[in-house]
Specification:
Order of helices and strands: HEHEHEHHEEEHEHEHEEEEHEHHH
Bound molecules: thiamine diphosphate, iron/sulfur cluster, magnesium ion
Largest sheet: 8 strands, mixed
Distance between the termini: 92 Å
Oligomer: single chain
Radius of gyration: 22 Å
Length: about 350
């Protein structure tokens, strides 16, 4: 008698979706571009956390980085805004529907050059959003001019030297009020993976600056955002591991050398300290560490600051539990009596 063997289907997550359900279109970015690696980490993290793709709103500005949302999570909402103006679109989307998971993808040019005005106001509001800067230090899409995150003295392929100091978007975000701030490197799969999952569990502004080499215009000798430079100068602040609330939390490390942060949904972000006394809830210390790293020429990576206590923008505005976008007309539209009362008050 013939026996039938069944081939196991694809691995599914806790909402029954396969990783394929989190993929997007085929990338048109250059082969080896760091932005592609970041898209992969977003796909893995969203899949593992069991986030319904339809709950996610991908928001971006203009640039190679801002094009990348087309290459992951094709079932999610997506809005490619004007250069540097994604924060206002993201704010509007979240105020209209607080149930969305906002994922902003921007570039260093899109954020720190043309978009810096919108960026600073987003950071001070603690809007629930994961804001990623795919940071290559140049305007990749327009052929590699320096952006405002390019390090002093770094060199373009053409030989031009940058003589302006960089903006540190992490120090800026912490100073302004963002409540989860970290830096990673597109080539550090493990660190970025844990950081991305913890970011999904946070309910406030997450700002991740991810150094992402532009292999076409900024990966040569003299660049401080190249693969080689990052591999030689990367100073990880701590080892990061993240345990989602739906997984059993076990302790397999020496508590004396690590710190655990409980996220809003009960998940645990574990930071194994390389520095004995690093505390990610100390805002002043986080800013000091970033300034010290600059002085030493280190590319410091890790989670610098986490605050799970601050109210987010939606809570501050005291908005209705039901998203504005789904409120019925009978609730949104004032009746004749209300209008008459208003008119009476104006008389
Ligand atoms: C208002 C406006 N000004 C200038 C441009 C030209 N422009 C397109 S992308 C870009 C810079 C993108 O750099 P970045 O955000 O770092 O993205 P990357 O391509 O490096 O990923 C510029 C200046 C534009 N599209 N719109
Ligand atoms: S030009 Fe640079 S940033 Fe743009 S896709 Fe190519 S490698 Fe990436
Ligand atoms: Mg760039």
């Amino acid at each position: 008698m013939a026996t039938t063997t069944s081939t196991p289907g694809p691995k599914t997550n806790r909402i029954g979706l396969a990783v394929l359900d989190y993929k997007g279109g085929r990338t048109t970015l250059c082969a080896g571009c760091g932005h592609n690696a970041i898209s992969e980490r977003i796909i893995d993290a969203m899949f593992e956390m069991g986030i319904p793709p339809e709950r996610v709103a991908k928001l971006s500005g203009i640039g190679c980085s801002s094009k990348s949302p087309a290459y992951f999570m094709g079932r999610s909402h997506s809005f490619n805004a004007v250069h540097g103006r994604m924060p206002s679109v993201a704010t509007g989307a979240m105020l209209a529907n607080r149930n969305l998971l906002a994922l902003g993808v921007s570039g260093d040019g899109d954020t720190a050059s043309i978009g810096v005005g919108q960026f600073v106001h987003l950071m001070r509001r603690n809007l629930p959003i994961i804001y990623i800067i795919e940071d290559n230090g140049v305007y990749g899409l327009t052929k590699g001019q320096f952006s405002a995150t390019a390090d002093l003295g770094s060199k373009l392929k053409t030989g031009v030297i940058n003589d302006l100091p960089p903006i540190d978007t992490c120090a800026m975000a912490i100073t302004l009020g963002a409540t989860f701030v970290g830096r990673s490197f597109s080539g550090d799969k493990k660190q970025l993976h844990s950081m991305m999952k913890a970011a999904i569990a946070h309910r406030g502004t997450v700002m991740l600056d991810i150094v992402s080499p532009c292999v076409t215009f900024n990966d040569h000798e003299g660049s401080t955002k190249s693969y080689k430079y990052m591999k030689d100068h990367d100073e990880p602040l701590q080892e990061i591991s993240f345990v989602p609330a739906f997984e059993e939390i076990d302790v397999e490390y020496d508590p004396g050398t690590s710190i655990e942060v409980t996220m809003h949904d009960g998940s645990k972000l574990r930071l194994r300290k390389l520095e004995e006394d690093y505390d990610p809830t100390d805002r002043i210390k986080a800013i000091t560490r970033l300034h010290e790293a600059h002085e030493k020429g280190e590319a410091l990576t890790g989670v610098f600051y986490v605050n799970t206590k601050a109210p987010n923008f939606i809570e501050m505005l005291n908005m209705t539990e039901q998203p504005l976008a789904t409120l019925p007309e009978s609730v949104v539209r004032p009746g004749r009596e209300v209008l008459e009362q208003v008119m009476e008050e104006l008389r």
